[in-house]
Amino acid sequence: MKTIGILLFIVAGCCHGLVDICPGGEVKKVFGDCVKQHGGNKALITDWIAHKNAEDDNSKCFRTCAMKNCGWFDANGKLKKEVPERSAYALYGGDASKIPQIMEAGKKCLDTIQYDEKNMCNSGENFSRCIMGNCKKCSLNLSAAL
């Protein structure tokens, strides 16, 4: 039953765009634009792919910029309810067996992250750190989404 659910999830995502990490497949453009906005250093991307903690505001804001520009945040600066599915699609690295674990971690994070009303960049980084921390054994792979 679990396998059928996973397959339906993947088919729905691929055929209907329900879990696009970035609508219209614009993730590379979004990453490029956000790198330019936050210092121009491509290490911002490689550090995120390597699951390193953001070291400064440029890193945090780059990550949040990418999430925001891909529609992960609502107008109030809160993560949308479909973010766990989008996270799973962005991080599963082609291994569908990881999707349920990543979704579970994403749901937990969506319910527990600390939002920073004054600095949205911290909110994005808090979600990023949360999902990485709650899914350590998932072998997350952001680079596959690019």
TrEMBL record:
Gene3D superfamilies, per database record: Pheromone/general odorant binding protein domain (1.10.238.20)
Signal sequence coordinates: 1-17
Entry keyword set: Signal
Pfam family, one: PBP_GOBP
The protein, known as: General odorant-binding protein 28a-like
The encoding gene: LOC131802314
